[in-house]
Amino acid sequence: MTNSNQSMKEINMSALIEGNGSCLCGKIRIAVKGINRNVGACHCGTCRNWGGGPFMAVDCGTDVSFEGEENISVYSSSEWAERGFCKECGSHLFYRLKGAHHYMMPVGLFPEVESFVFDHQVFIDEK
Predict the structure, then answer these.
(1) Element (H, E) at 74
(2) Most buried among 3, 13, 38, 57, by the most CB within 10 A?
(3) Strand ranges across the sheet with 55-61
């Protein structure tokens, strides 16, 4: 572990990869230019209610594109964030910060990526 913010930024930048995924039914295809390999778990009550357990997610930044956008339904879950899912199969697609359009996406959407590393948790006091 490093003590320097600069070193941490370098580690995070080197962790970025491209990835593609889809919902269960395949009506929505996802392409991400910069997925962070570091997987996190959110234990907040909203995430647990949404998915029945912790939200296991990767930071996908803002360079995310979707094919089949007409099949995405978006729920405004707070003043600052919204959650997207497939209208057909119900797959969870993203947690998105409204102002920045910054995406956190379920790690399971990217099955071809083998180098993910589980390295952090938030709201652990609620787990």
Answers:
(1) strand 72-76
(2) 57
(3) 72-76, 81-86, 92-97, 102-106, 55-61, 38-42, 117-122
